[in-house]
Amino acid sequence: MIQVGDKLPATTLMEFIAVETEGCSLGPNPVDVAQASAGKTIALFAVPGAFTPTCSAQHVPGYVEQAEALKAAGVDEIWCVSVNDAFVMGAWAKDQQTQGKVRMLADGDAVFTKATGLVLDLTGKGLGLRSNRYSMLVKDGVVATLNVEGPGQFAVSDAATLLAQAKAA
């Protein structure tokens, strides 16, 4: 399992872009994790799945609500990672109104999740391999803090916890 002091895995996530801009085409766009995190402080949190109850009612909304406070504490970007495809993450971003606040990044093949060792196996429940629920503060691609939830828990990966850690960092 990834630990404090480790570099983020050199993988690629996908981000759905709803409005074409210079350098970003409409639809799924690759996000090179190493390149995107270089020289930045990232508040990264991961969830078991888009549109799921706790993730949609508490986890994502907490980060959307705390986006300005996190940026005031030195966070450059907020990333939400889930083992879903970019189209689902794009629809969830629209539903959760994350535009300009939280980047919704798809780990469709669970490559990033497997590389971190934070896999949640929900095989037999119809969900297959998913991500554990966690948060981390990442500085220049290196994990500075890591908060991994226990099974079925939502107590340490919330926005308030990561905000307190960002302020203390």
Automatic annotation (TrEMBL):
Biological processes, Gene Ontology terms: cell redox homeostasis; cellular response to oxidative stress; hydrogen peroxide catabolic process
Domain of life: Bacteria
Protein's organism: Malikia granosa
Entry function: Thiol-specific peroxidase that catalyzes the reduction of hydrogen peroxide and organic hydroperoxides to water and alcohols, respectively. Plays a role in cell protection against oxidative stress by detoxifying peroxides.
Keywords: Antioxidant, Oxidoreductase, Peroxidase, Redox-active center
Protein name: Glutathione-dependent peroxiredoxin
InterPro entries: PRX5-like, Redoxin, Thioredoxin-like_sf, Thioredoxin_domain
Keyword Chloroplast: no
PROSITE patterns: THIOREDOXIN_2
Known catalytic reactions: a hydroperoxide + 2 glutathione = an alcohol + glutathione disulfide + H2O
GO CC terms, sorted: cytoplasm
Catalytic residues as annotated in Swiss-Prot or TrEMBL: 55
EC numbers on record: 1.11.1.27
SUPFAM superfamilies in the record: Thioredoxin-like
GO molecular function: thioredoxin peroxidase activity
Pfam family, any one: Redoxin
Family indicated by similarity: Belongs to the peroxiredoxin family. Prx5 subfamily.
Annotated ranges, domain Thioredoxin: 2-168
